Amino acid sequence: MTRIHNQTPSHNQMRKQGVGRWRPALLFALLPAILVLALLALFSLTAQAQTPSPTFSLDQVTPPTTLPAAAFGADGFGQNCAPCHGMQGNGDGPATANLTFSPTVFASADVMWPESPAQMFFTTKFGRIEHLMPPWQSRLSDDEIWQHVMYAWSLHTSPTFVAGGQTLYTQNCPVVMATQAKVMAPMQRVSCPISPI
């Protein structure tokens, strides 16, 4: 019987011919480049993590160009904010499972009363990096940020609370405004005896 030899060279034959030797050499040559890229990425992440968010400054708060309406911010809040803050603003969004802190609970009046809409605008625009809150200034216009803020601000009030405020306003504000008008009327008629310098 004639034996047919396999035409595929063995591993040892290929090594003798130099086939396959380039792979370890290529890996060895690329290893420093891979390490440099990995270190650059690590330093970049570390630098980003250590750069604190700016301190609140009212000068950095852009006033809204139109009166912001909370209703216009509802969809954007659901898309951009609810993953951490929750749809109802309870700080229980699906992304909070991996966080070591709780996001702001917009649904709590005790949490929201010390805050101002200007502070919320600033935090939304510039972020709170130390709590993994991203800055939204490159993804939302200032007016869109105001709408998001107004929607978040509205979450700590209930329709009953708003109705109570409307009742107080209706009962008291026209009386206060009329009283102020009576007090201010005589003052408006008085001329200033001292001329300005």
How does this structure look, described?
This protein is 56% helix and 0% strand. The chain is mostly helical. It has a domain at 68-154: Cytochrome Bc1 Complex, Chain D, domain 2. Helix 3 packs across helix 6 and helix 5 packs across helix 6. The termini are far apart. 15% of the residues are buried. Mean pLDDT is 79; it is low at 189-197.
Q: Give the integer mean of the pLDDT values.
A: 79
| Major β-sheet annotation | none
Architecture per CATH nomenclature, i.e. the level-2 architecture of one domain = Orthogonal Bundle
Name of the top-level CATH class of one domain: Mainly Alpha
Q: Could you name the CATH topology of one domain?
A: Cytochrome Bc1 Complex, Chain D, domain 2
**What is the helix tally?**
7
Helical content, roughly? 55-70%
Determine Rg (CA atoms, Å): 33 Å
Distance between the termini: 126 Å
Q: β content, as a range?
A: under 5%
> Poorly predicted ranges (pLDDT <50, ≥5 residues)?
189-197
